[in-house]
Amino acid sequence: IFDLDIEEIKAESCTENNKKYWIFDSNHFLSVEEMGLYYYQLLGWNGVSDEGNIVKLIIHAINYGMQNETGEPIFGYLKRHRAWVDKNNHLLSVTEFLITKLTLAWLTNTLDSNIEYFKRLYSNESCDKGNINFVWNGLGKDFFQKLILQIVSRCIPNNLGCSALSGWPDLTLWKNNQIKFVEVKCKDKLHRNQAYWLRNYSLPLMLDTSLLRIRS
To answer: 111-144, pLDDT tens digit by residue?
Structure first.
């Protein structure tokens, strides 16, 4: 259904407490996501297993910053008002804000000013400035503008809010200013929200997305 790059690797596995682990060496047993990250690190990629949380953090910070500056957040506004929202007017106001305000310097200042708040919601890896810079520089300002507008245009009629970002792949990887997203699987198939993300975000935004299957 989806034009995904699919890779498959084999690794030794074991089961402990009814959970499957992959054997890195005699002292290290890795989850399927950790094994996937290790595999790509061997290929020269850096990254995190965070289900897109660095991207979500950036989106959250932009939403938070817009609320502080204009009093009208991008997504919180949609959640508060269950009645019909004028999508075109809201898209115009969000677009104007993104064009005039959104820069890496503005984003960094927003994160720094509210870092304790974001650290309560996201891991240290996701809040790491170096990781954020890699993802921002690899995807670019245009990507985040398009992603936010894509979310807004889809979530206003359905009152989805930021839940529209569920289904993000397990791994966020970067190498030489390239960004790659990878879903890691053993036996299970893509979940409905993962298929939704691929269809409505990965494909329209032309993201480099792969599926890695680990077999024993």
So the answer is: 999 999 999 999 999 999 999 999 999 999 999 9
Weakest-pLDDT range from 54-58, 178-182, 195-199: 195-199
Region at 123 (left for phi over 0; alpha for psi -120 to 50; beta for the rest): beta
